[in-house]
Protein: TlpA family protein disulfide reductase
Amino acid sequence: MTITFVKNNVDKTEALSNDQLGTDLATNPANEGLGKGDSAPNFKLTTLEGKEVSLADYKGKKIVLNFWATWCPPCKEEMPFMQNYYEDMAVKENVEILAINLDSGIDKVKAFQQDYALSFPILFDEEGKVGKTYQVITIPTTYIIDANGTIQNKIVGPMDEQMLTDLVKSLDE
Structure:
């Protein structure tokens, strides 16, 4: 699997400007991978704690499905925003963030989780099977999935907290 990433040179705590943020499916000329209206394929992966989970386990919840890697600078930029959103809004908005890591080497991923104090589930896709199923080419790539399991949006590139908030709110419109 070939993975590319969007390059950003911003401070970890700095808000991302519009030209640094990812693009949504409607404005992405490549329209790579699955898209709006597609059913989100189910999968089974293991968390960093060794628990097997599937997408179906979260039926009835809105899902932010994020594909990332520890070496990816834009992934590093968006993780604090995702963590802030998770702490502040996930329960209130009935949202689960599932961060699917495409690295090899679970120790690197665990160290990253600790360094960034991430509390949302991180799933390990070392062989890239789920990444292939979702046809992820660029990372970070994030799918916004409604409570019925339908993909409603896809972002290629990093998000900030406001963008994430707006995308999840759009599921209720």
